Sequence to fold (444 residues):
Amino acid sequence: MALTGLQIFKLLPKTNCKECGMPTCLAFAMALAQKKAKLEDCPHASEEAKAALAEAAAPPICQVKFGAAEAEVQVGQETVMFRHEEKFYNPTVMAVSVSDKLTGDDLKKRIEEINDLQFDRVGQRIQVKAIAVMNESGSAESFAAAAAAVKENSPLAMILYSDSVEALAAAAGPVAQAKPLLGVAQAETAEAAAKIAKDHNCPLIAQAESIEDLAELTEMIKAAGVEDIVLSLKRPALKGHLYNLSQIRAVALKKNFRPLGYPTISCVLEGGPAEQSAEALSMICKYSSIVVVETVQKWAILPLLTAIMNIFTDPQKPVQVEAKVYAIGEPDENSPLLFTTNFSLTYYTVESDVEASRVPSYILVVDTEGTSVLTAYSGDKLNEKVVAEAMKKNEVDKLVKHKKLIIPGYVAVMSGKLEEETGWEILVGPRECSVLPKFLQEVA
Fold:
C-alpha cells in the first residue's frame, strides 16, 4: 500500500541538505507521496530506505512485458479502478488466435490476415498486437511448428497456449528470442511450467478455477522463480467472468493483495464474429489486460480497437495533431485558407469535409492544447492573438496572396478583433462542418 508523506519522511536521512531541490526532507517526502518527485533525487537515502520505498511505490498490479524489440507489448501497472481517478497506463492487448491444426499455405494465410488487422483512426495507427497460438491438435510437434511459422511470418507479439507442459516446452525453445507469453500453468503443472518460463526468461499464464485457487497458484509460481505472471480464470458464463475480473482488480488495488496483483487474460473463441466482438468488448471495459478472439473479420475487430483507444486515452491529454499548415489536395496561392484547433477529432472532421468539397485548400492548425474550438475559445486558449501568432509562425502570407482567412462559425464573435490584429479579411465559415463543402465551393 502506498506510504503517506510522514511514513516516507521516517525513512529519509532528515539532513535537510536541499540537494533534492526541496527546502526540507519533509517537503521532499510530501512530494514523493504525491508522485511529484523521485527517490533518486535524494542522494543520501539508505539502501534500506530505497528497498522499502521501492516496494511501497510498486504499482499494485505488476507490469508484464512480452514480445521482443518493436513487437514488445506491456500490460498491467494499473493503479486505479476508474480512469477519472488518475489514468489507465497500459492499453488492453488485442490478440487473435491461430490453431496449430493449420499447416502450409492455410497457416500462412491465417497469419497474414491477422497481420492485416490494422486501421488508421484520427491520425493514429490502431491494430491487433499479438497472435495466440493454440495447441488444438494436442501434438507437441504441430504446436512447435505453428509457433515457428508465426515467428517467421509475423511482426506481432506471441502467446503460446497449451495445457500440455511437453507441448509448451517443445514450442517455447525455438521461439524464445521472441519472448512469448507462455501458458498455461495449472496447479498440477505449475512447477514444470514455471521452469520452462524461467529457463527462457518468458512471462507465464497462471490458470485456475477460482480466484482463491489463482492466488495460491501465483504464490507457487513466484516461489519457483517466475515474477512475470498473467492471470487466467477458466471461463464461467460471461456475467460471472466479468464479476471475477472486477473482483481481482478491486482486491489488488483496494486491498493491495499482491497474489492477485497481476494483469489478466481472457479468451473469446466461440460464437460468430458479432458474438465474439460483443463479449470481447465487455472484457475490455471490465479490466481484461489481454483479450484473445478467433475472428479475423475487420468489421468485428475495428470496434474493439476503437474502444481500447478511447478507454486508454489519457483524459488529461486529449489526442492532438501537430500545429502547422496542412495542404489538402494541391492548393496554390489562390486557394482558401481555413483555421481550426489541434484537437484530433476536430481536425480530421474538418479535413474530411474539405476533401469532400474537392476544393484544394490550406488548413492552419492552431495549438489549443488539444481542445475543440468552443472549449478553447471559452478557456481563452483561442483568441485573436493566438491565431495571429500561429499565422505569423507558419508564414501563411507566403502561401496565399488574397489575405482572406476562413474561421469556424462558432467563433464568429472574434472576427472583428482578428481582422484588426492581422489586417486580413475574415470570412466566417459555417457552424456545422458538414456544410463546409458547399461553403468552399461557393467562396472559392
